[in-house]
Amino acid sequence: MSKRPLLITIRYLERIMSNVFFQCDGKSMQAPANTTVVEALKLNGEIVPTLCWSPGIEPCLGTCRVCTIKINGKEAAACTQTISENMIIESATDEIRDLQKAIVELLFVEGNHYCASCEKSGDCELQGLAYQMGMTHSRFPYQFTPYELDYTGVHLLLERNRCIHCKRCTDLFVDDKQRKVFSFEGKGSDTLVQMNHKYESELSDHKRKEVVDLCPVGAIIFKGKGFDRPIGTRKFDHWGDKIDV
Known about the structure:
By secondary structure, the protein is of the alpha+beta class. The chain folds into two domains: 19-92, Ubiquitin-like (UB roll) (Roll); 121-240, Alpha-Beta Plaits, CATH 3.30.70.20. 28% of the residues lie in helices and 15% in strands. It has eight helices and nine strands. It has helices at residues 4-17, 37-43, 94-109, 125-132, 168-171, 197-201, 205-214, 237-240, and strands at 19-24, 27-32, 68-71, 74-77, 88-90, 156-158, 182-185, 192-195, 220-222. The strands form three sheets. Strands 2-1-5-3-4 form a five-stranded mixed sheet, sandwiched between helices. Strand 1 (19-24) and strand 2 (27-32) form a beta hairpin. The radius of gyration is 21 Å and the shape is globular. It starts with a helix and ends in a 5-residue tail after the last helix.
């Protein structure tokens, strides 16, 4: 008798036993154990809006709250929770979608996110989410404290009024010598992103592009020429075309 069918069966059982079974919006799903809820949902083809979460951030602090869903009847950030057996998730109800949209609207009014005058327009993930959610305006009044820009870098400019404190630049980015270039100082509303100017001045071209692309908004941008990409060629322009104003 061949050992191959037995081996295949054992491997299949190992794979199944290592998976966690759960429900999302009435559908049965499974994902590897110790997977975050946001990753588990993405593995099953469910779209979960995210900003502070990015592959490689462990653990994610859930600072933006955009991925808020309901887990076993209670609201929680999907990026901070680990999937568990028989977990019941609600991610696409009208209530959850409106809550996620409200959080995106709040992020807009808490910073200088005037898309028409932003160099990241068309490539901004916050703007992309607004397009995807059908947002044309915010139901909340604009209220943010103006912060000083850091334009003293050689290659990069910090527009702190657009920073959403996602911490991607501090958690995921290092220079070619594995040094952290960005940090956060202060507490609460006084928290500001900072840049090590010596390390910034030594960044290679590909590292500068890496961190500009990593920032989900227009808080870290190139100094010099901007607005040089035609409308229609940028990352999220195709979503904006679907919005009826």
